[in-house]
Amino acid sequence: MAVEETNISSIMKIDEEKQKLLIGYMIKKLNKIFPIDDNNRLMVIFFLISGLDLINSLDELSDERKCEIIDSIYEHQLHPKNDSDLNAGKFGFTCHRSAVGRSEYKYDYCNISLTYCALTSLIILGDTLDRVNRQAIIRGIRLHQQKDGRFVQSLIEEESDIRVIYCAAAICYILQDWSSINRDTMIDHIKSCQSYENAFGQTIDAEAHAGSTYCAIASLKLMDQLNEVYDQRKRQTIVEWCLNRQVSGFQGRPQKDPDTCYSFWVGASLTMLNSFQFIDDQLHSEFLSTTFDNDTGGFGKFPDTSPDVLHTYFGLAALSLRVLNQISTEIYVQSIYPALNISQRAYKHLCSIHTKWNTLLSNEKLENL
């Protein structure tokens, strides 16, 4: 009986006390990053805004504060001067706020990952995306795609791996426009990143990795091609690799220690493959409880390590997968939409934006008849 009580008490749940700690931790970090120019500013804002959303605490920010954050995100957007500039490929969201919505900064180029972070943050904050230059972003993505289907992070950078493919897929899904990219070569490149281990590496011939596997599965899911590209037998081999990553929490690769962030990367992949129910949830939850800081709030990378923004977010995202898969009924955590890595609430808002765009498009077609 004592063992059962110990196990129950070690199950990781967000109660009112932990929620208050997390709110304080994330708002403090948000206030620190908000006024400064930092190359990772948009990414950190995403982690903090989405984290608050997952614990149903976005309203801890006043409407005025939300508007300030939305406006500051738009300050990162690069616009073309005119239609002839649309094919330059540099337009979207950049790491610098010096853009301030203008086009005079000829040495600034958009960044695919930061464009994903900007768009998802705007959606989470309830923005309508009316100020997003959809046409410029979509045309620009075309120039970021290489002949072999992969994407570069920026036109002035050579960084290119499956993470950028995922961000490009997410952007096209959010903006509801796949017209500028070659999905066939994109899918072929994703398939070529699958290793002999049956999971996916960051690049061709790279070691299989949990984060890369999530990017591959989520990209195919967003393209509605997961079941078309991999039949049930092949999907099962990916599931087996993912399930074998559990040692208490989840590791990113074989022979590595479990890490908080992989609870999401592996858990989300298993969710999209309809296999989350096969994990040992007791062990998983106990591991997450050891990486949570009960003094300051937040999750660390490993047990008894200091919390950071990235692992705090992915710890919450992992807990939200338990809610989504009906393993947990926590009232302080809402479920996530794993393919886009945003809450189900934010995803529903995105769907309402898509409905509006589709209605406007239909009306335009009727007017042109």
TrEMBL record:
Pfam family, one: Prenyltrans
Keywords for the protein's UniProt record, in alphabetical order: Metal-binding, Prenyltransferase, Repeat, Transferase, Zinc
GO cellular component, one term: CAAX-protein geranylgeranyltransferase complex
InterPro entries named in the record: PGGT1B-like (IPR045089), Prenyltrans (IPR001330), Terpenoid_cyclase/PrenylTrfase (IPR008930)
Protein name as annotated: Geranylgeranyl transferase type-1 subunit beta-like
Primary gene name: LOC113790787
Gene Ontology molecular-function annotations: CAAX-protein geranylgeranyltransferase activity; metal ion binding
Coiled-coil positions: none
Matches recorded under SUPFAM superfamilies: Terpenoid cyclases/Protein prenyltransferases
Cofactor: Zn(2+)
Similarity field: Belongs to the protein prenyltransferase subunit beta family.
